[in-house]
Amino acid sequence: MIKKICIIGFGSIGERHYKILKRNFPNKDLYIYSRRKLKLKSYVNNFNILLKINPDYFIVCTETSNHYKILVKFLNKFNNKIFLVEKPLFLKPKRIKLNNNKVYVGYNLRFHPLIQKIKKIISNKKFSHINSYCYSYLPNWRKRDYKKSYSAVSSKGGGVLYDLSHEIDYIYYLFGNFKIIYSFNNKISNLELNSKDFTLILGKTKKSTNINISLNYFSKFEERGLHLYVKNFEIFADLISNTLVIIKNNKKIKYEYKGYSIDNSYLSIHKKIFKNKFTDICDFKTGNKLAKLFSMIN
Question: Residues 33, 149: one domain?
Answer without folding.
Answer: no
